[in-house]
Every structure is written in C-alpha cells, then in structure tokens.
C-alpha cells in the first residue's frame, strides 16, 4: 500500500488483540494496542493526526467502548470506528451507532470479513477527506420543515436542532443525492456502509426508522422516507409524490 495506515485496537483480551494485530501487520498496517478506554483516548489525543481507524471492544475495564466512541466524537475526532463485540442484541448495535460508530461486527467473526471492513473503512475515509461528494454540489438542502447544512452537520427540524451521527448524515445525503429513485437495501449497504450485500444485518432498516423518527411528522405514516415493497426505499422531498403502494 502507498501509505502505512495506523490502526488502534482497543481490546482487553490480550490474545485476541495480539491475533488481530498480527494479521493487520501482515497486510502492511501499523498497529497499536491498548487494553482500556482511558489509554485509548490518551493515545488518540497524543497522535490525533496519526490514527486512521479504531477497532473497539465494548466491554472494557473502567470505561465502556460506548463511552470511548462517544468521547472521540465529542472531541471532534472523525476517524472510522469499527466496534467488535460479543453483544448481539439490536439495542447494542443501535447504541453503538448512536454514539458514532461506523460499523459493528459481532464476535466471533471471520478474519476475511474483518480485513474487508478495515480496507473499506480506510478507503471511504480517504475519499471523504480527499474529495467532496460529486453529486450534491450545494451544501444546504431543505425539505418539509427541515433544513440541513452538510458542511457544518447542522440539522434543524421544525425550528429545533437535531443531532445526527456521521453515518446518519451519509445515509441522509445518499437519499437526497438520489431523490425520487427506489434504492435497494443491497445498494445502501454497498454505497453507505461499504459492505457486501451478502452481509446479514438489519442496520439499514434500523437507520431508516431513526431517520423517520427525526424527520417525519408521523413516523408511523412516513411522507418523505418511503418503503417500496419488495424493492427498497425512496426519498421524496415533496410528500405529494407518495402513492398508495408505499408506506
């Protein structure tokens, strides 16, 4: 690879951290490991511009992985965060995304899938930092009672500021870039999450529910983020475009 990316592993199970480190280094990455959240935040603070990806366990001594991720985002750190956890409940994944994680991978996991996600997250980060999105040239957008500034991440719904994670903003922007078009779950996994369509996850549906909760006057009867049965989802800024085949 042209540049040696630095990956931080935050994992208190030493044997697992050592195994992941060995395989990442075999792929040419630079890798640091720490066993607790406080040490992770300290390392990132000391090497802020030299940590390109964080692999984060949730069950850490003293400070949970949720708190670590939340602290990173509150400090303005936008490096990708991939949660590695044995927690499999939907609410665990949702909370991980709530605090700003980019992806969530359950333990035990296949090494090939981990390596693929690492590669894709780093590539997406490079694209985000190197170029601006090509489709939507304007940074501001409005629909219904909502105004959005993609440069500042400011979102106001019906006069009230709304806080969205980076992943929610990417999903929102993808819908706006493709306004009116039916988008399949597979396409969203590929283009927003950088995941192959073969990955079994309910993340797309969970995030659609979250967007509806934020932007829809009545989330149970959406006007903007519509379900197209057996096909996917469609965003319409003009709710008059909705028809009886969508809900």
Annotation, overall tally of beta strands: 11
Strand content: 15-25%
What is the average of the pLDDT values? 85
CATH class of the largest domain: Alpha Beta
Reported by name, the CATH topology of the largest domain is Rossmann fold
Strand order of the largest sheet: 2-1-3-4-5
Gap between N and C termini: 46 Å
Q: Which class best fits the helix and strand makeup?
A: alpha/beta
Short description:
It contains 8 helices and 11 strands. It is α/β, with parallel strands linked by helices and 247 residues long.
Describe this structure in words.
This protein is α/β, with parallel strands linked by helices. It has two domains: 6-130, Rossmann fold, CATH 3.40.50; 140-241, Arc Repressor Mutant, subunit A (Orthogonal Bundle), CATH 1.10.10.10. The chain is built from eight helices and eleven strands. It has helices spanning 14-26, 37-46, 65-74, 90-98, 111-130, 166-177, 185-191, 203-215; strands spanning 6-10, 30-34, 53-57, 81-85, 103-106, 140-143, 146-149, 154-157, 160-162, 225-228, 232-235. Helix 2 packs parallel to helix 3. The longest helix is centred in the middle third of the chain and has 20 residues, at 111-130. The N and C termini lie far apart (46 Å). Mean pLDDT is 85; it is low at 131-137 and 240-247.
């Amino acid at each position: 690879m042209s540049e040696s990316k630095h990956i931080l592993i935050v994992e208190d199970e030493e044997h697992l951290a050592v195994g992941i480190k060995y395989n990442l280094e075999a792929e040419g990455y630079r890798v640091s490991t720490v066993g607790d959240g406080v040490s992770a935040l300290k390392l990132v603070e000391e090497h802020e511009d030299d940590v390109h990806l964080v692999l984060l366990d949730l069950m850490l001594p003293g400070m949970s992985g949720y708190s670590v991720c939340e602290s990173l985002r509150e400090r303005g750190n936008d490096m990708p965060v991939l949660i590695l956890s044995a927690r499999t409940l939907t609410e665990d994944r949702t909370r991980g995304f709530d605090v700003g994680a980019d992806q969530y991978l359950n333990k035990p996991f296949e090494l090939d899938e981990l390596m693929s996600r690492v590669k894709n997250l780093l590539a997406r980060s490079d694209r985000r930092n190197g170029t601006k999105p090509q489709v939507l040239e304007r940074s501001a957008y409005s629909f219904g009672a909502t105004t959005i500034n993609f440069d500042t991440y400011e979102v106001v719904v019906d006069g009230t500021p709304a806080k969205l994670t980076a992943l929610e903003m990417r999903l929102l922007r993808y819908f706006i870039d493709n306004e009116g078009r039916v988008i399949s779950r597979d396409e969203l996994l590929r283009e927003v999450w950088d995941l192959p369509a073969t990955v079994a996850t309910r993340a797309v549906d969970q995030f659609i529910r979250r967007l509806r909760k934020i932007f829809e006057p009545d989330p149970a009867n959406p006007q903007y983020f519509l379900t197209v049965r057996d096909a996917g989802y469609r965003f319409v800024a003009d709710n008059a475009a909705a028809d009886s085949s969508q809900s």
